[in-house]
């Protein structure tokens, strides 16, 4: 599962529409999208369009996943572009067509995505034509100079692979005892940082080829504050991030109960890294071809902050809700590694741990970084 090739076949948000699906648990990305919408609008307005070029514009949403968030993003882009084109055409409604590419790994639940899409754009009120493009955004996905707007929302924190150094048993970079890097040894974090930098540069090189000069690249990704050594900048939030304390405890429960060996636990690592604005800017500068228009660090309130009373009245229900939130992003890769039965046991223990964790009552905040850039 650790190699980029194998990870591409199992990494996805949880499909379907049940209680543990991404569709039902995408609160965090939705909040980030709402906060970044003004910046996205400004970015789209910065696109360099000239009279006569408005007949066919191409938009790509990379790492689109499933659910309303991807449609909301695309609708914002199409709406803003439509108004901009109307101004260029002297205030009249231009004869324009938009083509939107929804792209994600082949493991993504495209069936659910396109069932939802059909309900939203079907009929005479169709605002755009849609197509699906499976594949990793760390590789080329489109012909040269084809795209006018590229957005990627809450996806670039996912790496192309777990760093090979982290999987070297007994080495300084070996992430023994944990499944993510919060609180890990500095060598582990450095290995992740190196992989994250390599991945972002590869992403940018591909987009540099695909986006027309004057086109827009808008990126929204999980991040951390400048100068922060820890992945989760807020000490309080670090206790409650779905990848941290509760996750490590649930895996340790499986070990303690004899359901898996320690070596099995140590072989699983979550391929996520939160960059700083400086790390992002350095990658863009090294790649070339883009001019940063704006960068913003967004602070996102956890959707569970308002559920203190619920936890006190029904902690079991609260625990299940927390476990569903974690499963929405992690279940596919966990299940590919452990199988269905052990995966069920893992998240059941996660729910029990969450129900008993009173520390989770305190307010929790996460950081997202938004970057708008123009292809030059």
Brief write-up:
It is built from 12 helices and 7 strands. With 376 residues, the protein is α/β, with parallel strands linked by helices. Keywords: Magnesium, Metal-binding, Methyltransferase, S-adenosyl-L-methionine, Transferase.
**How do the helices and strands follow one another from N- to C-terminus?**
HHEHEHEEHEHHHHEHHHE
- By DSSP, the count of extended strands is 7
- In terms of per-residue confidence, which ranges show pLDDT below 50 for 5 or more consecutive residues? none
The CATH fourth-level homologous superfamily: Vaccinia Virus protein VP39
Largest sheet: 7 strands, mixed
Q: What's the rounded overall pLDDT mean? A: 88
Calculate the terminal CA-CA distance, rounded to whole Å: 37 Å
Oligomer kind:
single chain
CATH class, anyone? Answer: Alpha Beta
Helix content: 40-55%
**What is the annotated CATH architecture?**
3-Layer(aba) Sandwich
- CATH topology-level name: Rossmann fold
Number of helices: 12
What spatial form do the alpha-carbon principal axes imply? globular
Sheet with most strands: strand arrangement: 3-2-1-4-5-7-6
Beta-strand content estimate: 15-25%
By secondary-structure content and strand pairing, the structural class works out as alpha/beta
Gyration radius, rounded: 21 Å
Number of domains: 1
Protein name: SAM dependent carboxyl methyltransferase
Organism: Arabidopsis suecica
GO molecular function: metal ion binding; methyltransferase activity
Keywords: Magnesium, Metal-binding, Methyltransferase, S-adenosyl-L-methionine, Transferase
């Amino acid at each position: 599962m650790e190699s980029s090739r194998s990870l591409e076949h199992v990494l996805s948000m949880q499909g379907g529409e049940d209680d543990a699906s991404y569709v039902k648990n995408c609160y965090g990305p939705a909040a980030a999208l709402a906060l970044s919408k003004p910046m996205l609008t400004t970015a789209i307005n910065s696109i360099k369009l000239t009279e006569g070029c408005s007949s066919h514009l191409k938009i790509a949403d990379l790492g689109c996943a499933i659910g309303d968030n991807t449609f909301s993003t695309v609708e914002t882009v199409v709406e803003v572009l439509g108004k901009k084109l109307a101004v260029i055409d002297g205030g009249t409604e231009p004869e324009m067509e938009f083509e939107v590419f929804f792209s994600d790994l082949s493991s993504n639940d495209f069936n659910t995505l396109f069932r939802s899409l059909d309900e939203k754009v079907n009929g005479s009120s169709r605002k755009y034509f849609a197509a699906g493009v499976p594949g990793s955004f760390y590789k080329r996905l489109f012909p040269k100079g084809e795209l006018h707007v590229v957005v990627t929302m809450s996806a670039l924190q996912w790496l192309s692979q777990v760093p090979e150094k982290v999987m070297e048993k007994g080495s300084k970079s070996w992430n023994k005892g944990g499944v993510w890097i919060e609180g890990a040894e500095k060598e582990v974090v450095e290995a992740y940082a190196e992989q994250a930098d390599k991945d972002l540069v590869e992403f940018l090189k591909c987009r540099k080829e695909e986006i027309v000069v004057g086109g827009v690249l808008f990126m929204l990704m999980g991040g951390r504050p400048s100068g922060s050594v820890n992945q989760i900048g807020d000490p309080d939030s670090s206790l409650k991030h779905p990848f941290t304390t509760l996750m490590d405890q649930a895996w340790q429960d499986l070990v303690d109960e004899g359901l898996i060996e320690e070596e099995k636990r140590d072989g699983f690592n979550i391929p996520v890294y939160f960059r700083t604005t400086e790390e992002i800017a350095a990658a863009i500068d090294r790649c070339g071809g883009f001019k940063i228009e704006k960068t913003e660090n967004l602070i996102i309130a956890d959707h569970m902050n308002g559920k203190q009373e619920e936890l006190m009245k029904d902690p079991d229900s609260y625990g299940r809700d927390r476990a569903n939130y974690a499963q929405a992003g992690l279940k596919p890769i966990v299940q590919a590694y452990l199988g269905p039965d052990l995966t069920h046991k893992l998240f059941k223990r996660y729910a029990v741990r969450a129900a008993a964790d009173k520390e989770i009552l305190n307010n929790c905040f996460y950081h997202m970084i938004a970057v708008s850039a123009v292809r030059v």
